[in-house]
Design brief:
Largest sheet: 8 strands, parallel
Helix content: 10-25%
Strand content: 25-35%
Number of helices: 11
Shape: elongated
Length: 695
């Protein structure tokens, strides 16, 4: 057992000798160390007359271990006694971990964990890799996406994982196979956990990557037993920090706390917001380092192209069921579009979730659930990576690292959708947990249009930026009065060698929206007047109040984790926007929802369209959860009798002067329906329209 002491530049050594005899063991122990460069340090010889020897070994000017410098020492103890020789080799790292001032610290500097969960998802073999190469793929993928930490959710990985994490500089949090009710009184079970705790610490305790230990996940039961385990672990081994349970009752011996909620408020961040001027600092201050529990976890529609990759014992039978349902509901041709659109939204959400975590400068870090998909619990496709730790092609590692890395440029602002008579104001910050200061860092900002043309640029004060914290850099503004047409702009910020960007949308104000003419009738009710207008071969725009529409609640966000395990509203996973249709000619959008859709979707209702003609596809098509796969929409058009009908289940009145994106969507619809381009081809009966409206 090797316990580093970087302050005194020593390693404390404990050697135990197994002996079958009754007599004391006598002889000598030779102790040798190689430094990370392979140089041999001075040997130490110790006379022994017992089965346990402890001594201190000097390591002058030690090369410390952390994520940036994963320096590994190698120690060999050789026993010579009574004509026989035996040796044992162990690796270790010179590092120090503390929780002073409720902050994680490694080697006397602050540590911020950017982590993801590892839930033992290995479909190709059905068990975790037992070789270093298998773990190199996992940890390298995490590092490629800016992570420095993995939490092993309710399990302890094999030795190969620790060895590779040591080499790559990845911080690990390890747990026993304890979850839920496992702490309820049961002496046989409790004795297993007592043995398992000691076994984990003995077997893997020398690994410097093993920085955190927790008994298990979301435990319920007798917490006096949880306190017993935690206190015992602290007494046995002080080389890491300990916690009783994730996301549940705290115990006296806790040295850190992984949670979604403190006594001061919610800590986990599951979704973004239509502005960036927020953080979670006020929810902290509970006396321990806080790590956010299972943040993110927004669904992506399954990618059926992955089915062919399940060549091992785990087969994608659920995907077969999902695909059959989609085919039954006449939308199988849209499967890949659903995947792309929902995936784009999840990537957008993860950017905002992670940036909010980084802005929370008092926190000890965060743990996503998860960077890769989870094949259990009915299937939770929440990852940017698939279950095999391969990319889904939704976002590149380079783009991801703009907002998740040791050093990240951050920008606080109050709106993503603005009128052109407003002023955009940004407050620049830098999250810097990199290895060095940013000396004389040049800070540049610019705003470009959709063609990449720079509309305005500027510089903030050149300055030296500290490390191991979040630092303000200054502010800038841009008057939007030269924007006369709807535009998507991009705000760029660069600090020294790092860069980041954010999209905003700018719109002119519109008055006299939704004005009826002799040809076009705007209405909130499908009454006799509207029916007669259609019978006469004219045009009707029906915008029923969401409260008058049967169907599901509309929200901006994708469903949480998965709709099979958590059957709560909205049970939808984003929208597929048919952006090539002329209804969007004057409303800037891509094929997926982005932040300009926030106030539209938050003030809408999802229409269930399973009884509509199979060929009818809504232009705002909501993606149903994948074990249901019904056709859903917020906006669609159809031919009714001789006339043309456009339905938009969006509140067009509530605070409409404060909703620039909704105004612009209505303006685009108005121009469309009053043009010759509005000529729906698919016919529906009046009875279908009445079927989703409340009396």
């Amino acid at each position: 057992r090797l316990t580093p002491d970087i302050d005194n530049q020593t390693v404390n050594v404990c050697v135990k000798i197994g002996s079958n005899g009754s007599s004391p063991v006598s002889g000598k122990l030779l102790f040798a160390v190689k430094d990370p460069k392979g140089n041999k340090l001075a040997n130490k010889e110790v006379q022994i007359n017992n089965t346990e020897i402890t001594f201190t070994y000097p390591i002058n000017n030690p090369m410390l271990w952390d994520e940036f410098n994963p320096n590994i020492y190698e120690a060999t103890a050789t026993l010579e006694t009574e004509g026989m020789t035996d040796s044992k080799c162990e690796t270790f790292g010179m590092r120090k971990l503390t929780n002073q001032n409720a902050l994680l610290q490694i080697n006397n500097r602050r540590l911020f964990l950017r982590g993801t969960l590892e839930c033992c998802i290995f479909p190709l073999k059905g068990y975790p890799p037992m070789d270093e190469a298998g773990w190199e793929k996992v940890f390298s993928a995490a590092r490629d996406y800016g992570m420095n930490h993995l939490r092993f959710h309710s399990w302890c990985p094999p030795a190969a994982a620790f060895r590779m994490a040591d080499k790559l500089g990845v911080y690990l949090e390890v747990e026993m196979p304890m979850w839920g009710k496992d702490a309820q009184p049961d002496e046989k079970r409790w004795n297993f956990f007592r043995r398992e705790l000691r076994g984990i610490l003995k077997e893997y305790g020398n690994h410097p990557s093993f920085i955190l230990y927790c008994n298990g996940n979301e435990i319920t039961g007798d917490f006096s037993f949880i306190e017993e385990l935690t206190a015992t672990a602290r007494q046995l081994d002080n080389r890491r920090l300990y916690s009783g349970s994730t996301a549940r009752t705290r115990v006296k011996s806790d040295q850190f706390y992984i949670t979604h909620q403190t006594t001061k408020g919610h800590m986990a961040i599951y979704e973004g917001r239509p502005y960036t001027n927020w953080d979670k600092n006020k929810e902290l201050g509970v006396g321990l380092p806080i790590i956010s529990h299972e943040s993110g976890q927004r669904c992506i529609y399954p990618n059926f192209e992955e089915m062919k990759n399940f060549t091992g014992p785990v087969q994608a039978r659920n995907f077969e069921i999902f695909r059959e349902l989609l085919d039954k509901n006449h939308m199988l041709d849209q499967a890949h579009d659903f995947f792309r659109a929902s995936g784009a939204l999840t990537a957008i959400e993860y950017k905002d979730v992670i940036e909010a975590q980084l802005r929370t400068y008092l926190k000890g870090g965060f743990q996503l659930l998860s960077l890769n998909d989870f094949t259990g619990q009915g299937y939770a496709p929440v990852g940017i990576l698939d279950p095999f730790w391969n990319t889904k092609g939704l976002i590149t590692p380079e783009k991801w690292r703009e907002f998740c890395a040791p050093t990240v440029a951050l920008l606080r602002f109050d709106k993503r959708a603005l009128y052109n008579d407003e002023v955009f104001e940004g407050k620049a910050e830098i999250y810097n947990y990199g290895p060095t200061l940013l000396k004389n860092a040049k800070i540049n900002w610019s705003i470009t249009d959709s063609n990449g043309k720079t509309l305005k640029s500027g510089k903030l004060k050149t300055q030296t930026v500290g490390k191991n914290g979040v630092f303000p850099l200054g502010s800038f503004s841009y008057a939007l009065d030269n924007i006369t047409e709807p535009q998507k702009l991009t705000v760029h910020l660069s600090v020294a060698h790092v860069k980041n960007s954010w999209d905003i949308w700018v719109y002119p104000r519109h008055s006299n929206l939704m004005q009826s003419t002799s040809e076009v009738l705007y209405t909130t009710v499908f009454d006799e007047k509207a029916k007669q207008h259609l019978a006469d071969g004219k045009k009707v725009v029906l915008c029923p109040k969401p409260s008058k529409v049967k169907g599901r609640k509309s929200v901006f966000h994708n469903h949480f984790w998965n709709p099979i395990m958590f059957k709560w509203p909205p049970m939808t996973i984003g929208c597929l926007i048919h952006d090539d249709q002329p209804v969007f000619e004057h409303f800037i959008t891509s094929y997926h929802t982005d932040w300009q859709w926030w106030d539209i979707l938050e003030n809408a209702k999802v229409i269930e369209m399973k009884d509509a003609p199979a060929a009818l596809r809504p232009f705002i098509q909501v993606i149903d959860h994948y074990d249901n796969n019904e056709k859903l929409g917020i906006g669609f058009e159809a031919k009714v009798k001789k006339g043309s009908l456009l339905v938009l289940a969006v509140d067009t009145q509530k605070n409409i002067n404060e909703r620039p994106a909704t105004q612009q969507l209505l303006e685009s619809i108005d121009r469309y329906v009053k043009s010759d381009k509005f000529a729906p081809q698919i016919t529906v009966d009046e009875s279908y329209i009445e079927s989703f409206l409340k009396k």
